[in-house]
Amino acid sequence: MSPSPILWIDLQPTLHCFNQRLAKRLSKNRLVKRWSFQHDLDEACSIETIHSMMLETINEGREKYHLAGHGISGGIAHLFACKYPKLVHSATLLSADTTITNQWTSHYLEMRSQLPCGRERILSHLSSQLFGSDLSRKFPIFASLLAKCLDEEYILGSIASQIKRGRFKASDIPTLVINGNDDFVIDRTAHTRWSEQLKPGDHYRAIENARHFFHHQEAKQTADVIESFLDMVPEEEMNNSLTIKSAYSPIQISKND
Q1: How far apart are the C-alpha atoms of 176 and 26, rounded to whole Å?
Q2: pLDDT surpasses 60 at 51
Q3: What pLDDT sits at residue 136?
Q4: Which of these, 58, 61, 115, 250, has the minimum number of CB atoms within 10 Å of its CB?
Q5: pLDDT for 168-182, tens place per residue?
């Protein structure tokens, strides 16, 4: 029997270009499907709304997945796994802290609300912190992508109102957390915070000399860590009688693109 597929949660499609190298490597051994969400700016959106849409997709396919996601997408995947542990095999979180509100977007909002700097200058500074000086020639491109994400896609909070949430609770399913060791968003002490949350069988890994989007620059190393972890996770088929109803229409998922 072929291994269960990975469902890559993607709440910020503009930044999907940083996921592609890793997804392509993972797709050599497993089917990788992308669950992409485009936030409607004219309507309010909550985590519960997103989870309802994810439920529709999983119910429709009647297949258990290994969830994966970077940043806020990983946080949403973790909360889904905590709520519906019987629907997924595992959760892999990249650049994740023990609280979902610690994101690159929250750092931007904090800077924007306190510093007397223009948006472009702040985003340029953020690009240097998120990617490192080795990619300095691409900072204008990165800043443009970050701006598009802030304007058009799902983030928590705003300059006027930032959301405060408590820490994640421990999940009942196998969980892998991978962070960059030089990430200014998720600092090195995250290992200590996660050690209080992770249970036996879970795993935390820090990638040396890596920043927030480490999986783009260190795709092979990251893929090796994920594959080793998934190979150890027991896989059981979804109970055919287990279906959770939702009032939302399913979002289409497609093979890794």
Answers
A1: 15
A2: yes
A3: 81
A4: 115
A5: 888 899 999 999 999
Range 215-218 contact pairs with CB under 8 angstroms and sequence separation of 24 or more: 215/18, 215/19, 215/21, 215/22, 215/70, 215/94, 215/95, 215/178, 216/18, 216/19, 216/21, 216/22, 217/131
| CA count, 13 A, side-chain hemisphere, 201 | 14
More confident residue, 137 or 17: 17
Q: Write down the residue that tokens 């960059």 correspond to.
A: 180
Report how far residue 82's alpha carbon sits from residue 84's, in angstroms, rounded to the nearest whole number.
6
- What are the backbone dihedrals phi and psi of residue 27, each rounded to the nearest 5 degrees, phi first? -70, -10
**Contact between residue 175 and residue 78 where contact means Cβ atoms under 8 Å apart:** yes
Read off the pTM. 0.88
Q: What are phi and psi of 239, to 5 degrees?
A: -65, 120
End-to-end CA distance of the chain, in Å? Answer: 24
Q: In angstroms, what is the C-alpha Rg of the chain?
A: 18
Ordered alpha helix ranges (H), the chain = 20-26, 47-61, 72-83, 104-114, 119-131, 139-152, 190-195, 214-217, 219-231
DSSP 138: G
Residue 136's SS3 state is: helix
Degrees to nearest 5, angle at CA 192 with 223 and 19: 25
What does residue 177 show for φ and ψ, rounded to 5 degrees? -120, 125
